[in-house]
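Posting for a labmate who doesn't have an account.
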Amino acid sequence: MRIHRMSTSLPSTQRWLTIRTQFAIDSLIVFGSVWVASVIRFQDLWPDGIMRYWSAIAAASLVLPAMIYIFGLYSLQGNPLRKRERVSLLCVAFFTCVIVLLAVGSLNFSSRLGRGVLALQMPIGLGLLITHHSFLVRRGLEVRRRMALVISDPRDELSLKILHGVKPPQTEVVGYFSPKPLAGKLADLHIGTCTEIVKNMERLQIDALICAESHLRHPDMSATLRRVCFSGHQVSRLTDVIEEAYGAVPLSLVNVEWLVHASALPRRGYVRKLKRLADVLFSLFFGLLLFPALLVGIALVRLTSKGPIFYSQVRSGRHGRTIRVNKLRTMRVDAEANGAQWAAGRKAPRLTPVGGLLRTFRIDEIPQLWNVLMGDMSFIGPRPERPEFVAQLAREIPFYEERLLVQPGLTGWAQVCYPYGASVEDTRRKLEYDLYYMKHMSMMLDFFILLDTVRTVLHGGACRHGAEALRQIEQLSLVQAPTPIDLGLPQTA
């Protein structure tokens, strides 16, 4: 018998809750392996010395899962890695964790792990880590969310075509419920009428039902959907499925209702208070940490090109308020002699000899930590754009000005998921990631974006994660307005 879980959280939020759970398990592996090693070494269920290790264990418990996340081993993209590659990355992360254990012990001798405990901890911890991630790979390859759709108009038929066209990872479209089969090849996917939804979902072991907002307003259909929910299944929208799969919201699926719903979700306390506190702490910490890199960048700019070291530019902040941001100069002094131009990529001719290098590793952005400290920017958020471009892009891209409702950021979800943009098309894609962030912004998401930023810098730039699927969804969405049809349900008196 199949047991269905009733989820009260949004599907896209579930993605991060799953990653957080795996992150916590890997952290516990560090503590658990040290504890087991201490028990074996001292023949005591709670050795007296275990509490002396707490500072070293705490540091190592954060470093191990953070490195695993940076290596991409919690994501679906990590599954195709060969077993040897995956184990090698896990070993690198684990032995870095051991180095942290030793390093903290060297700084604080009272927290130093003995050689006997460490010799036992290493095989135990590494064995548990590899076992855990072997289970994750097996589960990631096997688990598929079985979905069905409710089709009542051409727009719903479009949803079916989109899911069949892009084939989101870890999803399986079982079929659709409609008064009658659709024409062509889609007829084979017809699994029942709208009066048979609850019965056939149980029979076919379907996990989630995808429906449109209009179905929720239909009195008889909404009653059926409530029965589906109370039967332990999930009722989702197409946008929820795409968000879960790609971490972005296709502009072609966004409407005013979605925007209002999304704007009510972020935790206001976090945005107003905790986020600002985190910005101050992060800007001070990373300012000290990256100061040597900034000095290297200053020297490279001075030695390779004539002109000022820093470049100041007006950008649009929250609610369109103009702010002035500072960067290391990466372009020639005469780069904008003919007026404002799109941001240059890493190989643009306007760049200085070291401009591409500074941009690749984000060294040119370090001076903006001052903007974060002063409150003009946040550490995480949509990148601030130039006012002249904002006006142009707002005319060409729907809902572009929505990103001005939150504080702009030094780094952000769009920056770690999509490379430098140099066209309106690239800006559209980045906005889809920005809208996702604005809907789901939280301390947990900001923490993972920081780790993704580290990975982006180490890789020398972001990849176009899911961009082709988003582009395909946009192409499929260019259809005429839907004409509702009869759902085939008994009418309410």
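Reply:
Got it, the structure tokens are right above this. Residues 268-465 form one domain.
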